[in-house]
Amino acid sequence: MTMIVLVAWWLVEAESSPLRWYFLNHPAASNLFAFFSLPAVFIGIIFSGNAHQPSEVVTAIAAAAQWFGIGYIFAAAIIGERAE
């Protein structure tokens, strides 16, 4: 799940994305994705010390950790239901 989210983040947010023009003309999808990625962005801002330019590396690591945790919780819930 982590790799899927990081690839999706690149597709939605990056200037080099092949889908850049689509998301510029349809901002609802990118706004929703940005909303769910706010914790990672806040961590990037804290570690960079600059509110206007968060550290991309720290933000990507925080996003990976965030979505790994979410995926782990969902997987544990699904496996826990099957075991009972």
The proportion of residues in beta strands is: under 5%
Radius of gyration: 15 Å
Number of helices: 5
* Quaternary: single chain
Distance between the termini: 25 Å
List the uncertain runs: none
Specify the structural class: mainly alpha
Number of strands: 0
Total discrete domains: 1
Order of helices and strands: HHHHH
* Mean pLDDT level: 84
- From the spread of the alpha carbons, the general shape counts as globular
Biggest sheet overview: none
Share in helix? over 70%
Describe this structure in words.
The protein is mainly alpha-helical and about 80 residues long. It has one domain (about 1-84). The protein contains 5 helices and no strands. The protein has helices spanning about 1-15, 20-25, 25-35, 40-50, 55-84. α1 packs across α5. The mean pLDDT is about 85.
